[in-house]
Design brief:
Keywords: Monooxygenase, Oxidoreductase. It contains three helices and seven strands; from the N terminus they run E-H-E-E-E-H-H-E-E-E. Helix 1 crosses helix 2. It has a single domain, classed as Phenol Hydroxylase P2 Protein (Alpha-Beta Complex). A hairpin with a 3-residue loop joins strand 6 and strand 7.
C-alpha cells in the first residue's frame, strides 16, 4: 500500500534580501513548487521542506542564523518539526 505525502508550504515575503533564502530552499528541495504572487512567494512540497543554514549562507554570502527565518516568512502549512542552529524542517507530524 502506498502512502500519499501531504503537502507542506511556506509563504515568504518577496524582497531582495529574501531571494537568497528562496534560492537556498530550492537548492535543498529540488521537488518544490514555487509560485510568485505580488509581494509573496508560495513554496510547497510533498512531505517536507528542509532549510539548511550552510546552503542559505552560501546563497546570501554571509553568516545566517536560523532565527532570521522568522523575519522572512508570512505563514506556513505544516509543523516546525526541527529547528536548531543548522537546520529547519517543516512537515506534518501526523
Amino acid at each position: 500500500m502506498s502512502e500519499t505525502l501531504r503537502q507542506v508550504g511556506i509563504d515568504i515575503q518577496e524582497s531582495e534580501e529574501n531571494r537568497g533564502l528562496i534560492a537556498a530552499i530550492r537548492s535543498d528541495n529540488p521537488e518544490l513548487t514555487v509560485r510568485h504572487l505580488p509581494g509573496l512567494v508560495k513554496i510547497q512540497a510533498a512531505g517536507q521542506i528542509v532549510i539548511n543554514r550552510e546552503t542559505v549562507e552560501r546563497e546570501i554570502g554571509r553568516e545566517w542564523e536560523t532565527g532570521e527565518f522568522q523575519l522572512a516568512i508570512v505563514s506556513f502549512a505544516g509543523s516546525l518539526s526541527e529547528w536548531d542552529d543548522d537546520r529547519i524542517i517543516v512537515k506534518w507530524e501526523h
